[in-house]
Specification:
The chain is 26% helix and 28% strand. By secondary structure, it is of the alpha/beta class.
């Protein structure tokens, strides 16, 4: 049996060593010299040393393209339009690019290596993305596996963002992690609190960033945050918001709700917020959100448990959150001004909720979401 187990390990180790050797040889032998990056037809232009990935090179110049996986080519977030010839699309890119993107020369910037002058297009809002130094102000367990982590930006630290957007936390080397990596988290803080960033970080077994936050990060530590990023936000229409989240998917909705309440924003919108969990052990912020609902007539909070235990004496809705959602859409939510869906959670939850919403009359184009990878 040992040779059956050792065989694949030897092959994998050899492959890893070979990949490292190839990268080192390429770095030494292929000296690409100085190259020019032209952005948005001359809006920004700079010269850099060739040989590195476009994503990291842009970051070194203060231009931060979103990348939930930290540049490993596994999230598909770091898309840019390339206007010059940089070679064929790589197999590592094709799973993340649809036919229209391929036709429009969209590439993953973490996979594009700078070998010669390049011209690209970036969304102009990325020009305002910054890297912030911050100090951990507080860390609080809100459930057994979710920590509410508050970062105070170091002076002069002010972040301007729209409720629903996210930042990337830069995780420094620790343990067996040899290089800094970045991971994306939705902000749960109110945009009016410009000096802080609050994140809800759920522990994922084996997760580089979540392990760091849950096992190593302490109050008083300093970290780097990059942002804001993202298009998830409240849309300025009279349609009712039908929001669904589970676990740390609470984050963008907490930001949206308190921002809307404080500013009396989008006053025509009714807001229905469905929060799904298995048992009370997986719930948090229930008292605060019930108080918000009691003081804000157009906000309706519907927590639901799929597997409540008898000893919990749960008085709220029960069942899968998709079943509860469908029942409310059919029986309780007014449709006179139309409906919009807002979702944040796992891909499975998102897909199930989209199915419920579309078969109950919400156009897919009116459903907005953040999917956790």
């Amino acid at each position: 049996m040992n040779h059956i187990i050792l065989g694949p390990l030897v092959v994998a180790s050899a492959a890893a060593v070979l990949a490292l050797v190839i990268a080192l040889v390429d770095r030494v032998v292929n000296n690409y010299g100085e190259v020019t990056i032209d952005i948005n037809h001359g809006k920004k232009q700079f010269k850099v040393q060739g040989g590195s990935a476009l994503l990291g090179t842009l970051a070194s110049q203060g231009l931060f393209v979103p990348s939930a996986c930290g540049g490993r080519g596994s999230c598909g977030a770091c898309k840019v339009r390339v206007l010059s010839d940089v070679g064929p699309v790589l197999p590592t890119e094709t799973p993340y690019l649809n036919p229209q993107e391929l036709a429009n020369s969209v590439r993953l910037s973490c996979q594009v290596k700078l070998k010669k002058d390049i011209a690209i297009e970036l969304p102009e809002e990325l020009f305002s993305v910054k890297k912030y130094k911050a100090t951990v102000q507080s860390i609080r367990d809100v459930t057994y596996d979710i920590k509410e982590t508050v970062f105070r930006l170091d002076n002069p630290g002010v972040i301007e963002f729209t409720a629903g957007q996210y930042v990337q936390i830069v995780v420094p080397p620790y343990g067996e992690i040899q290089e800094p990596v970045q991971r994306a988290y939705s902000m749960s803080s109110n945009p009016s609190d410009t000096g802080i960033v609050e994140l809800l970080i759920r522990l994922v077994p084996g997760g580089i960033a979540t392990t760091y936050v849950h096992k190593f990060l302490k109050e008083g530590d300093t970290v780097e945050l990059v942002g804001p990023f993202g298009e998830f936000r409240v849309h300025d229409t009279p349609a009712a918001m039908v929001c669904v989240a589970g676990g740390s998917g609470m984050a963008p909705f907490k930001s949206m709700l308190y921002d809307m309440k404080q500013r009396d924003a989008f006053p025509e919108k009714e807001i229905w917020y469905f929060f799904g969990a298995r048992t009370t052990r997986d719930t948090f912020y229930l008292d605060e959100l019930r108080e918000l609902s009691a003081s804000w007539p157009r906000f309706h909070f519907v927590p639901a448990l799929s597997e409540p235990k008898p000893e919990e004496n749960w008085q709220g809705d029960t069942g899968l959150i998709t079943d509860v959602l469908e029942r409310y859409i059919q029986e309780k939510i007014g449709k006179d001004k139309g409906l919009e869906g807002y979702l944040c959670g796992s891909p499975g939850m998102i897909n199930a909720c989209v199915a419920v919403m579309t078969r109950n009359g919400i156009a897919e184009s009116d459903i907005y979401y953040d999917k956790f990878a």
